[in-house]
Design brief:
single chain, Aspartate Aminotransferase, domain 1, Aspartate Aminotransferase, domain 2, 7-stranded mixed sheet, 4-stranded antiparallel sheet, binds pyridoxal-5'-phosphate
């Protein structure tokens, strides 16, 4: 794919669309419109995925069953609510390369990070450090700092932040390795993003897990920007745990229900401390309402509450579309689409902009982060006025993410033209 030959013309983009085997999937989503009725150029599927047109029907089914059945919908609804979360387990597991026993959907992302840290961050006086990215998403930083504090440690001593070299923007795997080996004995946990939300850099999860385990640490990932965006094989890569939200690439709607992964080797490790609730209790005996907690084996044992069915319905609508499209097809198109965007940005000969995301397709997903010289936000305002929905991240970056399910090659072409014109 790196050798793909692109042309900088509208007709080339239109031909790419015509021969795209996923081209009909765009029509399964509502694309927001501009005032004149034209589709916007939506490049923020990394922030909030668009609404599948099937969502309303999926929700209506549950509203109807609630209307007609009341509490009996738990067992008698068309999609019984009692096991409803199980209906998405396999599809979600497939998105992250996990086994069913390793995956469950529940809560939201930061909540899940805390629940997993309760189990997988167990500091001792010798081993108490957590390794994160220096520019990790703020919620992850807050979660980790508060967990360190909760255990009676000071995050100034117990937090290692991985920083790029001076005058560089991306983290190098050899520098990550060096930091991990240097601090080996004192590191309890490594918690990195799968794809950094700011730079779009995808980390070598397999390698990081290998190094982490070599030094005796546990290794977890925040896959908010990775799930549904890059190929993941969490089981084979041996990660201990992971958490992700589903409203970004997975289109489950604002605040949608999130996912977790706990590797199978921890499935029956019931000695791990955990915060518990009735939904994590053995299903056979849950309704005997006994006072002793008996966890379900695997990820399901981390559930606390009975889940929000309407949110699950939205997620189901979206995951059905992912299944129909096929993850392999999506990743293949994604590489081509983002490759085209990278090519077109390269054709804009203007030193005010540069792409900070890795050019190696193994080290990124669909997002490209464009650095704007002198942090001139007027450029962002100008493209927004022309119908582009992208996002501006302080201090100086425009993030754009053409997603393979609903973005087209002509979207990408039009975006590049608008950017070029706004620079002129
Ligand atoms: C989007 C995102 C979040 C958001 O957390 P919520 O709990 O869903 O509000 C957290 N961490 C990362 C890395 C993110 O990209």
């Amino acid at each position: 794919m790196e050798n793909a030959v692109f042309e900088n013309t509208y007709s080339f983009a239109a031909e790419m669309d015509a021969s795209d085997k996923l081209k009909n999937f765009r029509d399964k989503f509502y694309i927001p419109r501009q005032a004149d009725g034209e589709d916007v150029i939506y490049l923020t599927g990394n922030s909030l995925g668009l609404q599948p047109k099937t969502v309303r029907g999926y929700i209506e089914q549950e509203l109807k069953d609630w209307e007609k059945l009341g509490v009996e919908g738990h067992f008698n609804a068309k999609n019984p609510w009692m096991p409803y979360h199980e209906f998405v387990t396999k599809q979600m597991a497939n998105v992250v390369g996990a086994r069913a026993v390793e995956t469950v959907v529940m809560n939201s992302l930061t909540v899940n990070l805390h629940l997993l840290l309760v189990s997988f961050y167990r500091p001792t006086n010798e081993r108490h450090k957590i390794v994160i990215e220096a520019n990790a998403f703020p919620s992850d930083q807050y979660a980790v700092q508060s967990q360190i504090k909760f255990h009676g440690f000071d995050f100034k001593d117990s937090l290692i932040e991985l920083k790029p070299r001076d005058n560089e923007t991306l983290l190098r795997i050899e520098d990550i390795e060096e930091t991990l080996l240097e601090n080996g004995d004192s590191i309890a946990l490594i918690l990195l993003g799968g794809v950094n939300y700011y730079t779009g850099q995808a980390f070598d999860i397999k390698r990081i897990v290998e190094i982490g385990h070599k030094i005796g640490a546990l290794v977890g990932f925040d896959l908010a920007h990775a799930a549904g965006n890059i190929e993941l094989n969490l089981h084979d890569w041996n990660a201990d745990f992971a958490a992700w939200c589903s409203y970004k690439y997975l289109n489950s709607g604002p605040g949608g229900i999130a996912g977790i992964f706990v590797h199978e080797r921890h499935a029956e490790n019931f000695d791990l401390p955990r915060f518990t609730g009735w939904w994590g209790h053995d299903k056979e005996t849950r309704f005997l309402m006994g006072s002793d907690f008996v966890p379900i084996k695997g990820a399901e044992g981390w559930q606390l509450s009975n889940p929000p069915i309407l949110q699950l319905a939205v997620l189901k609508a979206s995951l059905d579309i992912f299944e129909e499209a096929g993850m392999g097809n999506l990743f293949e198109k994604s590489k081509r689409l983002t490759g085209f965007l990278e090519y077109l940005l390269g054709e804009i000969d203007d030193e005010r902009i540069s792409v900070i995301t890795p050019s190696n397709t193994e080290e990124r997903g669909c997002q490209l982060s464009i650095r704007v010289r002198n942090a001139d936000k007027n450029l962002f305002k100008a493209i927004s006025d022309k119908g582009v929905i992208a996002d501006w991240r302080e201090p100086d970056v425009i993030r754009v993410a053409p997603v393979p399910l609903y973005n087209s090659f002509t979207d990408v072409f039009k975006f590049a033209e608008i950017l070029k014109n706004c620079l002129d």
